[in-house]
Automatic annotation (TrEMBL):
Gene Ontology MF: a single term: homoserine kinase activity
Domain GHMP kinase C-terminal residues, every copy: 213-261
GHMP kinase N-terminal domain boundaries: 62-142
Catalytic activity: L-homoserine + ATP = O-phospho-L-homoserine + ADP + H(+)
Name of the protein in question: Homoserine kinase
InterPro entries the record matches: GHMP_kinase_C_dom (IPR013750), GHMP_kinase_C_sf (IPR036554), GHMP_kinase_N_dom (IPR006204), GHMP_knse_ATP-bd_CS (IPR006203), Homoserine_kinase (IPR000870), Ribosomal_Su5_D2-typ_SF (IPR020568), Ribsml_uS5_D2-typ_fold_subgr (IPR014721)
Pathway field: Amino-acid biosynthesis; L-threonine biosynthesis; L-threonine from L-aspartate: step 4/5
Subcellular location: Cytoplasm
Family membership: Belongs to the GHMP kinase family. Homoserine kinase subfamily.
Top EC class of this enzyme: transferase
Enzyme Commission code: 2.7.1.39
GO CC field: cytoplasm
Function: Catalyzes the ATP-dependent phosphorylation of L-homoserine to L-homoserine phosphate.
Length: 292
């Protein structure tokens, strides 16, 4: 039997919802899993993601680690595994590749156990990253609001307004989420926290019902400026787009720039040299499984 798991990329934060908002995007990794008599074989296939040479093919592969974790949680043992990973989501660009890999592995564990995905899958997946925004989006699809109570992760899925057409500008350069989290301060001024509270509350309304409010709703003071030294060209592009009235933000921990448009294109005259610009519709479904 072959289990095929299709998992969407995601964009986190959406400007004002640091570690809270996520949105699934229609760019998918596909992972095929087969159970064998013994051993582990991992094949990593570039399906558009670019250079995959740094990705391991042993037990340290992220999908394998998440699959093993889910199998332990679900109390099943698997004698051997063949894994074929077709990677389309570029790595270390702020499009949630690591969360997608973890969600694929967890979903594979549930598939092998013959169990439907439930709330515990989010917990298992979010534990890998320490925040649930990307994982919830890849798991549930649509627009998610994620939060943590103690060590428990939660998320609510909302449906984005149908007029929203996300466009991403992906640079060639990479930046590791772990490193850019290190650029964030331990404390922020109270006025910035209040600013963030107003904009993130507004963003829930803007994304679901009032796209005309997206520009104000995506303003951020908690993370993007602090991370600018890691990817100045991305921040420059984001600011150039915002100066034209586009609701542009840094996608996740960067360096991709996300524009929440209603046109599916970026305005003429903005210099996008060094970026691949593509429209990525919202994925409303989240992770899916096919058994053959
Ligand atoms: N499909 C995948 N298979 C295996 N490892 C992956 C996969 N996707 C991401 N990773 C691992 O996660 C790293 C990128 O994670 P991260 O820095 O959080 O960036 P991103 O914004 O792309 O999630 C990669 O360098 C790789 O080690
Ligand atoms: N909220 C996180 C999101 C990281 O997303 P990624 O796609 O860059 O891994 C953060 O901003 O650190």
């Amino acid at each position: 039997m072959k289990y095929t798991i299709t998992v969407p990329a995601s964009t986190a934060n959406l400007g004002s919802g640091f570690d809270t908002f996520g949105m699934a995007l229609a760019l998918h990794d596909v992972v095929e899993v087969e159970v064998t008599g013994s051993g582990l074989a991992v094949e990593v296939i570039d399906a558009g993601a670019g250079d995959m040479s740094g990705v391991p093919t042993d037990e340290s592969h992220l999908v394998v680690r998440a699959l093993r974790r889910a199998c332990r949680y679900l109390d099943i043992s698997v004698p051997g595994i063949v894994l074929r990973c077709h990677n389309a989501i570029p790595h270390s660009r702020g499009l949630g590749s690591s969360a997608a890999a973890v969600v694929a592995g967890v979903a594979a564990g549930y598939a092998l156990a013959g169990k439907d995905i439930d709330g515990s899958a989010l917990q298992l997946a979010a534990e890998f990253e320490g925040h649930a925004d990307n994982a919830a989006a890849s798991l549930l699809g649509g627009f998610v609001v994620a939060w943590q109570s103690g060590s428990t992760y939660h998320a609510e899925r909302l449906v984005p307004h149908s007029a929203i057409r996300p466009v991403v500008a992906i640079p060639e350069v990479r930046s590791a989420t772990e490193q850019t989290r290190g650029l964030l301060p331990d404390r922020v001024p109270h006025r910035d926290a209040a600013f963030a509270a107003s904009r993130s509350a507004l963003a829930v309304h803007a994304v679901t019902a009032r796209p005309d409010l997206l520009f104000a709703a995506t303003e951020d003071r908690l993370h993007q400026d602090y991370r600018e030294p890691a990817y100045p060209a991305s921040v420059r592009l984001m600011r150039a787009l915002r100066s034209r009235g586009v609701a542009a933000v840094i996608s996740g921990a960067g360096p991709t720039v996300l524009a929440l448009t209603t046109t599916g294109i970026l305005p003429d005259g903005v210099d996008v040299a060094g970026f691949e610009v593509i429209e990525l519709p919202v994925d409303l479904v989240g992770v899916r499984l096919c058994v053959s």
